[in-house]
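Input record, target 12 of the design panel.
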């Protein structure tokens, strides 16, 4: 299973050439991030992790954001926190006009 996941991730990485990983602190995105870091020679120099800050929590209180930040620091990857409006939080933002990999609510996709 691990080899199949790594192979699928690498194939999509080469196909999509993502500029970002929308990352939570969840196990799924951390696993995908780990596979991306293992194959980081295929990533652009501008590659970054992006997290969505819950509008209901103060900066530093969102555990997903803090875990994602720690992961980014560990691997030396740029990290950006987006703070969507409350009404926009549970929807994909059309503002992402570049290629990215990510997921919602534990449903990551490649």
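The sequence produced for target 12 reads:
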């Amino acid at each position: 299973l691990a080899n199949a996941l790594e192979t699928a991730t690498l194939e999509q990485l080469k196909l999509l050439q993502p500029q970002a990983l929308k990352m939570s602190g969840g196990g799924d995105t951390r696993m995908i991030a780990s596979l991306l870091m293992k194959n980081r020679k295929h990533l652009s120099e501008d590659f970054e992790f992006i997290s969505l800050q819950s509008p209901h929590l103060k900066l530093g209180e969102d555990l997903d954001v803090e875990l994602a930040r720690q992961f980014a620091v560990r691997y030396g990857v740029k990290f950006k926190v987006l703070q969507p409006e409350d009404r926009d939080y549970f929807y994909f933002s059309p503002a992402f006009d570049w290629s990215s990999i990510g997921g919602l609510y534990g449903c990551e996709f490649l």
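DSSP finds three helices and five strands in the chain.
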